[in-house]
Amino acid sequence: MDAIFYVVRTGCAWRRLPKDFAPWPTVYWYFTWWHDGGTVERLHDALRDRVRVADGRSVEPSVGLIDSQSVHTADTVPVSTRGFDAGKKVKGRKRFIVTDTLGLLLSVHVVAASIQDRDGAKRSLLWTRLDHPSIQKVWADQGFAERTFAWMTAHRRLARDYETDPARSETMIRWAMIGIMVRRITRGCPVKRRGPRRLRWTAP
């Protein structure tokens, strides 16, 4: 996991992992295995629930925020999975995200940049509705989602899309958010409870 976080944070190629990590084929095998088996998504969602509870929120949100971001792709990305966003003058892919009001990720969908916002948002909204039926409304183009994009692109691997498969791009985004949430939890999130007592999360 440390090696995967290193790739996400620094943007280095798998083959360029420092020698003090496990061999890069082993690290990439785990990245692929945890992606294919849904482990990354389950880990991400469990951490999001914990952060929400630590902030005094219910586990399930009632409000979502949706936004999109177009990013350039590497030359190794298949032409069939990228396009041109004429509005933002970006040749690559487009990321659709739905977040809660804390900026935490509820769903992510990566498509070719040529996909119109009204079309690309439909799948993200459907996933959000199916996974979080408690959501009563979704706002568009809000600052909370923009903040999440800023968190994401602070990770050099996400400043440009390098993944051959859009689904792997979505997993890279989840790894970045996992790292953000782990740091938030270990720093100590205030837990709001009834009564005068206040607790903080501490690292295990």
What does this 3D model show about the protein?
With 204 residues, the chain is an alpha+beta fold. The chain has one domain (2-200). Helices cover 42% and strands 19% of the residues. The chain contains six helices and seven strands; from the N terminus they run αααββββαβααββ. Strands 1, 2, 3, 4 and 5 form a five-stranded mixed beta sheet that branches. Strands 6-7 form a two-stranded antiparallel sheet. α1 (2-10) packs across α6. It is globular and about 45 Å long. The protein starts with a helix and ends with a strand.
Percent helix, as a range, is 40-55%
N-C termini distance: 17 Å
Helix/strand structural class: alpha+beta
Low-confidence stretches: 191-204
**Can you give the mean pLDDT?**
89
Tally of alpha and pi helices: 6
Largest sheet: 5 strands, mixed
Strand content: 15-25%
Structure at a glance:
The chain has helices at 2-10, 24-36, 39-54, 117-131, 143-153, 166-187, and strands spanning 63-72, 83-85, 90-99, 105-112, 137-140, 190-191, 199-200.
